[in-house]
Amino acid sequence: MRERSPTTETFLTVGVGVYDMQPIDEVHVVPLGYEHDRILSPIRKHDADVVYLLTEQTHDRNLTPYQEVLVEELESDSRTVGFREVDLGDIYDVLAVVTTLAAEHAEDVVRVNVSSGGKLAAIGGAIACMATDATAYYVHVEEHVPDLESNPRTRGFEEAEVLPSYPIEAVSYDQVAILDYLAETNTDAYTAKKSDLIEFAETAELSFMTEADPANDKAKFALLNANVVDPLESDGYIAVETVGRQKQIELTETGWNVLHAFRHKLQDGR
């Protein structure tokens, strides 16, 4: 961890006669596109402690010479630099990685550069910030440069503009758990029914079931519909099909993507 100036923010945790000052890191999440100044300047301006570079490949980095220089400059500033593999052309993959990093740094200040990795990466990063406490920023540049092989896409740094946040309600832990259950349970030969979801919810002690303590099966189905099935179906994450007297539940393509984006909630806990 880098040395901190006297102005570094801290948490004051009060225990039993113990005062624990916990430093807050400045964390930047940055798609590693064909940029240099657009990435480096905001990181230095905010004196970031930790930087995560989102790249197409982490095990075999095929970087341009100016990207290699950028990484060397970031590491030479004595800050922690990490790489996360992500498909920058997949909104949901970017969304998944950024929300996961935001959750891992829930007590820190997390900023996301939405100007350095292309349009789809920008959308994924922006949505991730809306669903978390992270802050998205867009970097204005002085000029654009056409030759990407030998030069970054842009040059110079004017300002890093903080984008307005329009909070969205991310899927809950219970809903992610149900989506994950459907992904694990449904096969070509079997499709989960509402009764299966209720049994799983009770076994997994999902909060919508345990906190209400329903008195009978009718109440259990009502809770399942209100807290899980209806909102997920309304958002297009699941499809409900009536087969005889039963309701079968399947993940839609969007549901698979949302599960990918928010599966980290199952590791983070409730």
Supply database-style keywords.
alpha/beta, Rossmann fold, 12 strands
CATH superfamily of the largest domain: Hypothetical protein VC1899 like domain (Restriction endonuclease-like)
Helical run tally: 10
Low-confidence runs (pLDDT<50, min 5 residues)?
3-16
Radius of gyration: 22 Å
Class of secondary structure makeup:
alpha/beta
Number of strands: 12
- Name of the CATH architecture of the largest domain: 3-Layer(aba) Sandwich
- Spatial strand arrangement across the major sheet: 5-4-3-6-7-10
Proportion of beta-strand residues = 15-25%
Helix content: 40-55%
SSE series: EEEHEHEHEHEEEEHHHHEEHH
Which outline best applies? elongated
Mean pLDDT: 84
Q: Would you give the CATH topology of the largest domain?
A: Rossmann fold
Termini, distance in Å?
A: 28 Å
Overall tally of structural domains: 2
Biggest pleated-sheet summary: 6 strands, mixed
Which CATH class of the largest domain? Answer: Alpha Beta
Pfam families: HFX_2341_N, WHD_DUF6293
Quick rundown:
40% of the residues lie in helices and 22% in strands. The chain has 270 residues and is of the alpha/beta class. The protein folds into 2 domains: 10-162, 3-Layer(aba) Sandwich (Rossmann fold); 173-268, Winged helix-like DNA-binding domain superfamily/Winged helix DNA-binding domain (Arc Repressor Mutant, subunit A).
